Amino acid sequence: MLVFMLTTMNRDLATFLAMNPILTVHRGFWWQPVTYMFAHSGMRHLLFNMIGLFFFGTQVERELGSYEFLLFYMLTGVLAGFFSLALYWFTGTYMVFLLGASGAVFAVLLAFATFYPNALIYIFGIIPVRASVLVLGYTVIEIMSQIRGGSNVAHMTHLAGFGFAYLYFVVRLRVNPWQRFFH
Question: Diameter of the chain by CA atoms?
Fold first, then answer.
């Protein structure tokens, strides 16, 4: 919240913290694939990330423990940032400023669905969806949104969050989320 307030008052600080391929690679702003997670494009963006982190992150932290949760959150978020940097760089998309914790929050959502695949999430407070189905649905929505394009949303960063969370579970925790989703 503090970073959001500071970047709202000072747009130069937002540029300094956001991940931009030109600034990161040519100007040596190598902190940006980390700091982009702590700056947000608006109050709604911050609010949705905080709500997701609160509802899903508290349960995931309970399962992993605080240290492992912090490692998981930071590692998946930073890897999603570097993935996005590489994607933007190699596709020639230089005039983008990546902001927000969505990559890490999507990783937390996958972790929640791995620990609680049958937990019911109520969309709009009324439509019950199993957590594992929600992750699969979000994956399809993100892929379709990326293909359609035209939005100012980093859909590939969200998908990278899912992907790096999956790898984290398989490599570090020796758990296959996919198998948990369907058992």
Answer: 49
